[in-house]
Amino acid sequence: MPAYMILDSQDPQRLIDFYGALQGIEVLAEYGQYCAMAPNREGLMVVFQKVPEPKVGKNRAHFDIVVDDLEGSTARVQELGGTWMEPGKTHELEGFSWRCMQDPEGNEFCLYLMAAGLSNDANPPHPH
After folding, report:
1. At what angle are helices 70-79 and 12-23 packed, to 10 degrees?
2. Cα 52 to chain center, whole Å?
3. 3-state helix vs strand vs coil in the chain, percent to 5
4. What is the rounded distance in angstroms from the CA atom of residue 73 to the CA atom of residue 40?
């Protein structure tokens, strides 16, 4: 069974389009104010919940999206309306690399490049 995360959104369709295009996934199901995306390649499902209030402050939790190429993925996030939170900065630790990003509503997530020789199933070492 995949893991899932509920993400509040004032405009779920905008985030569905963003994460769907970024990860090549589609909507799995819709239930009233909830919309569930299909699992991504790591098995994470994101469910968007429509809420009236905007995001305020830093997320208390975030997710990492494993990518094969940081440069291309960073450019794709920006094309889709997201932002690179620390332009020019790539974090590195023991062969792992990541960039801190925001989706179009300001929710933080990381683009994550696995260390050479490890599969997507390896446990990420970086603290947030």
Report:
1. 150
2. 22
3. 15, 35, 50
4. 15
| pTM, 2 dp | 0.85
In the chain, what are the domains? 4-51+63-113 (3.10.180.10)
Is residue 77 a contact partner of residue 21, using CB atoms and an 8 Å limit?
A: no
Question: Other C-beta atoms within 10 Å of 112: how many?
Answer: 21
The per-residue pLDDT for range 22-78, each reduced to its tens digit, is 999 999 999 999 999 999 888 889 999 999 999 999 888 898 999 999 999 999 999
CB-based contacts of 42, cutoff 8 Å, min separation 6: 66, 120
What tokens were used for 5? 């995360």
Q: Of 117 and 122, which is predicted with more confidence?
A: 117
pLDDT band, very low/low/confident/very high, at 114 (cuts 50, 70, 90)? confident
